[in-house]
Amino acid sequence: MGLPDRDYYLKDDPKSVELRNQYLAHVQKMLELSGEPAAKASADAQAVMRFETGLAKGSLDRVSRRDPDQIYHKLTVHQLYSLDPAIDWPKYLEGMGAPPITDLNVSVPNFFRAIESTIVQSSLDDIKTYLRWHLLHAESSLLPKAFVDEDFHFYREILTGAKEIQPRWKRCVAATDNDLGFALGQKYVEQTFPPDAKARTLKMVQDIEKMLGQDIQSLSWMTPATKQEAMVKLRAVANKIGYPDKWRDYSTVKIVRGDAIGNDERATEFEVHRDVNKIGKPVDRTEWGMTPPTVNAYYNATENNINFPAGILQPPFFDNKMDAAVNHGGIGSVVGHELTHGFDDQGRKFDPDGNLKDWWTPEDAQEFEKRAQCFIDEYSAFTPIDGVHLNGKLTLGENTADNGGVRLSFMALMDSLKDKPQPKIDGYTPEQRFFLAWGQIWCQNVRPEMSRMLVQVDPHSPGRARVDGVLQNMPEFRQAFACQVGQPMVREPACRVW
Ligand SMILES: [Zn+2]
Q1: What distance in angstroms lies between residue 346's CA and the mean position of ligand 1's atoms?
Q2: C-alpha closest to that of 158 among 458, 445, 447, 389
Q3: 367-418 pLDDT, tens per residue?
């Protein structure tokens, strides 16, 4: 689908109808730029819309897709084929160069039923049109300027409210990161991430893990049996910091000056082969799902590891020259956040090895859900733009992780400062500096169009809700800034899971 979510195809409010008309105009324009006469491009855009609407109808909504049980359906290749015989799946897999496989996880079987009915109802020409549009769309950033400008017009101007395209050098860096990210990352790490920064981050991660252990042990709502399992899972979490131990070898990717699309295709082919070659082999847990320059971090539930690329180990998240309070409020809270993902509404369904397996007693699971509901209610009340509420269920995992993460990092900071003098810096106590740092890492300037899109597709709350939503739950914040019950930043009763 070319629109950001299935709901864009299915909702009938005026804004959604308007966006669909703008999308039709965009698809038509791209096809015209590729050489189609206007009348044919217009009819073809309608065919694309019909095809994608068919797929949208079979797509699982984002909230359901967060439930690991709803996206796990182990089928044989032949069962997949019988869901969707319009595509010869055995032949397709063979053509991909995959070794013989008998079964696979078909995340959303209904989607394959939708592919089937959509293909059956489409003419061969319509299918070709659909594929042609997606080829143009996927390569738009590497096509001549008219394509780049039209792509910007719809995907950035209309969908996100952007006023101007990013400078060319930034787009080039992003393209390189996309195609050869670990080669770029090797250079990036050399210049920006010295060994002492890695050592300092690792120490912080270990301190925060210790705090989660203490927190689990002290929980009043969890039974000893589940606590014990949680500790086993916590001890099994692997910490990956900065960059992989082994760099990816791109020497077989042929780069030709002046052949941007060819370079991109060859880089993609390299990645596809690399992935296909993993089939039937043990999982490589040392592999990274984000490139080192990425300003982001993640928890991998099926491998039970936390990953912090060097790109996020930079100001404002982490600053080697700053005091512990600021770094704990920034990157420390992110570390706690990723760690907590292993124990949020999604992560808690995976065992220490990353297998989908329930290790909770029913009573503890129920207690967890009850506490999670408090976050759903709290965050559903935020309205990033007038009349549009956050989706408390879609953002539940991230909000749970934020609340747990900030608390754990705060505990680690207090632990490291105990028995030490706590002078003010720039007029602020360590506690105040901690909370200010959490506010600063989520400082954002977002246009209303972008907010509207993010509310529908982003499992993260917007920056302001990430800050206010966590801090109004924390007695430590109240104390640090002398807030009183009844004031906006004090929530009674507060929500808490971890
Ligand atoms: Zn997260």
Answers
A1: 11
A2: 447
A3: 999 999 999 999 999 999 998 999 999 999 999 999 999 999 999 999 999 9
